[in-house]
Each structure stands twice: as structure tokens, then as C-alpha cells.
Amino acid sequence: MTAPLRTLTAETDRPLLQVQGLTKSYGARIGCAHISFDLFPGEVMGIVGESGSGKSTLLSCLAGHMAPDTGRVIFDTGTGPVDTVTMAEAERRRMARTDWAFVHQNPRDGLRMGVSAGGNVGERLMAIGARHYGEIRATATDWLARVEIAADRIDDRPRAFSGGMQQRLQIARNLVTGPRLVFMDEPTGGLDVSVQARLLDLLRGLVREMGLSVIIVTHDLAVVRLLADRLMVMKGGHVVEQGLTDQVLDDPQHAYTQLLVSSVLQV
Amino acid sequence: MTAQDYNFAYLDEQTKRMIRRAILKGIAVPGYQVPFASREMPMPYGWGTGGVQVTAACLTPDDTLKVIDQGADDTTNAVSIRKFFQRTAGVAVTEATDQASIIQTRHRIPEAPLTEGQILVYQVPIPEPLRFLEPRETETRKMHELEEYGLMHVKLYEDIARHGTIATSYAYPVKVEGRYVMDPSPIPKFDNPKLSDSPAIQLFGAGREQRIYALPPYTQVVSLDFDDHPFVASKADHDCDLCGAGTSYLDEVITDDQGGRMFVCSDTDFCRARREAGHVGRLGTPAPSLEAAQ
Does the distance separating the beta carbons of B162 and A116 come in below 8 Å? Predict the structure, then answer.
């Protein structure tokens, strides 16, 4: 494995997230094994691999949805680095509402389908103590505009939205509290290609503008090519190759990465 | 021959003991929903099985019981529960709020101020205030545990977004002693201020959901709201048509199909006492003749 690489956007020396020897197994079956990497502020890290390669397990462990068997996930909070695996649950959940965000593949998992778009965006604000209706609504309106949803749709429920709009709404809902680290699980899965392209464009803009650090799990190499600075290729629960995105995609070393890159159809 | 020959107030002593332990725990942790092993009662769920069990566990032979349903002493639910305890416990019953030591209520708090030593027992259909927003019980428990109550404001936000004001008019969520968010049972929000700082013990029993929670005397209870949309304890903008009271909670009664309607106190005991004291409303007649008509 290569040593963690720095990107041009990373300004500080301290990594935002340090993952050390993370392992999660389901009984005798391996979910993911011995994963270690550093993520620096402002860096976008892609994790690619086929279904069952352990990338979603890894993401769940990182985001605290699942407890890893061994290993440490050290996040640089405002007060200093903290191991999120052993931290108190209350604190971890508070962090998940403020410093972290999680974008699900299916917007239904990440949105409250019975609550209006404005309420969906405002939920995280209210969860951290916003109690002024006018201000919550103004922030929600602003964020809907930033993800290209018309302001007059603010009182519509996500059910009335198209798939692409739902995904954009989910992104707005997650970014409204200004998180520093965003986990994305196949954010463009299930969208048609033209909508995918617009969503990627939007995401790229937001990531650069807000200086977000992102860990993005996907099987779509085009997504990582566009978004990710760095790439990790997983197979059978192990990382088989990692490096700069362009380097890995243009000059794949591992046999599986070569297979992966060559399976993409060139239109 | 009544049941009290072998037992008092329907439930067996072990069951009452179990319920009293839940009540004590509820009083020790105001607003916290204590699980209890709710018993099958001789009435359908939704008719006050939780309230009846709490009342049965609190009753002593010296108690005087009052039962109200939507404020009224003479509705089916109130009459049948009152009769139930007359038969199974043989306790004295009353309609006068100030003479009762235990008041079981559905959907109202009596207008007359409660006093120290009184117990108010609420019938609760759904004790979980977060239920309609978060269907998972595991998750709502976690939210109570970690004091994650942002979701409750999402409900109020939705109200304002859709109706312009907080349209929730009953079962209005409250925060108890700055800690637990609690469903005050479906009382009108007009009654919410009376929850706070009450000299009486307030017990909440949910039979189907198997939960008991409580407010000890003089507990601080705050209705949730937004800074720019404060809580308002609303009532119909009328006076009582029978007793003329301007400050009591009113029921609207349709009187014909020509649009005729009248507003009357929902608390029948309060209304009767006022009429007996000589107050007459817009459509009322002096008290003696009214009583005769009933």
C-alpha cells in the first residue's frame, strides 16, 4: 500500500479523519479488514469496488452506524482528535448532526417523506437548537436555491419531487448545518445519466465552495473521476490499491483495478 | 355481593403493587414513560384502561372519586367508569371537583383549581409524543434518552408552514422540568398552562401502550413553541351560553340545521356551580328550572 498522499486543497498538517486497522466481520465472513487511511481537510476520497467488496460496511463503520470489531476512527473535532468508536453515543449522535453528514443512496432513507421540503432542511437546525421559525425558513429557502429547487416548492413533500430533486433535497438537508465531513453512499445511484451529470456538477460546486471533506462510496468510476482527489479500490473486504484518482484510473496496477477500469464502456 | 369481599378496586394486590411501583418511578422522573405490565380490563382499549388501572392502584376506601370525560360528568365513559369503581371499590363518588380526592379524566383538566392532596389521573391513548414523526420505538426511546427533541419542533414547523400558525390544538407537546418532552394526553392546549406548577399529583396511564408517566406537584411544564410563534392557549371566542363564563373552555353544540349553534362550558360541574350561584348566559335560564328540565 502506498503512503497517504496529500492534495493541493489540504491546508493543514493534521488529518481530519484517521482510520487505523478497521476490521468488521459478520461471523466468519469478512465485511472489511485492516483498513487504514488518513483524510485531510478539504479532501475528497473515493471508495470503489464491486458489490460485496465491503465498501458500504466500511462507510457504515466510519459513520458510526455500525460498531467495528477492531480499529480506531479518529476524528479531529473542534477540541482535538477523538476516537469516534469509543466516544459516548450522545456525543457521536450530536456530531452526526453537526460536523458530519450522511447522504444515502436512496433519498427515502435520508429524508422524512411525510414532512415538507422546508421541514426536512430545517430539521437539523432545530435539532441543534434553532427556535426561530422565520430564520429557519429563510435558511431553508436559501439552501433549496443552492441545490436548484424552486422556492415555491418549499412546502411540498418529497413525495411530490422527482428522484433527482429528492437527492438534491437530501444533500441540502445534510449540508445546512455546515458539516466538515460528508459520507456519501452511491449518491448518484438510481438516477438517469443526465440527472446524474447535473447532480455531480452541483456536488462538485458545493464541495469546492464549502471546502468539504468527503468520503464517497460508489461503483461508478465516472463519479470518482469527477469528484475524488484520491481513490481506494476494494475487493473482498480488503483495499487492493489506493492513490491519486487519475493515477489509479489511468495506470491501474492491481489486476482487479485493471479489470474494473477496462469494464467501463467507452461510448 | 361485591368484589370487595375478596379484594378492593378490581385489581389484585400484586398488580396494584406493580402499578404503584411504576407510578413512584414516574413521579421520581417527571415526564419519563415507565413501562408497566398493563392488565386486561373489562372494557375496550381506548376507553380508559390505563387510567382505570392507575386509579385502581391509587384508590383507598376513604377516597372520593370523580370521573369526567371531555369535562362532563354525565357522558357514557365517565358514567361507566364511575359505576365500575362504585361496584368494585364501594368508594364515595362526587361531581364536585373540590370535593374529590381522585379525579379520573379524559381530555380535560377541570376548570376549578386543583388543590394539594388531589390526584388527577389522565387516560392516554398514545403516550409517545414523537410517535407520528418517528414510528420506531427503539429510536424514540433513544431520542428521549439523549434528549434529541429537534423532531418535535419539525411538527410545529410543519403546522406553521401549512396553516400560518401552530394549528396543533390538543395533545400539544410539553417539556417537563427542562428534560423530557411529554404528550399531555389529548387535552386541549387551553389546559396546558394548568399542567405547570399544579398543587395536585398528575398521573398518566396508557393501557394499550403499557406506559405510565407522572407530574409531581409543582412541576414546571413548558409548552413547546418558536420564538416568533409563541404558544397561545386558545379557546372558542365566545362566552358560555348557559352560565356566561368568559374564561372556561367551550364546546360548540349544533342546535339545528339552520346554522344555529351554542357554546357551553365543557366542564359541566363548573357550569352547574356557576348557574347555581346565579350566573345566566345568553341562552340560559336561572338554575332551578334548568335542573328540573334535566
Answer: yes
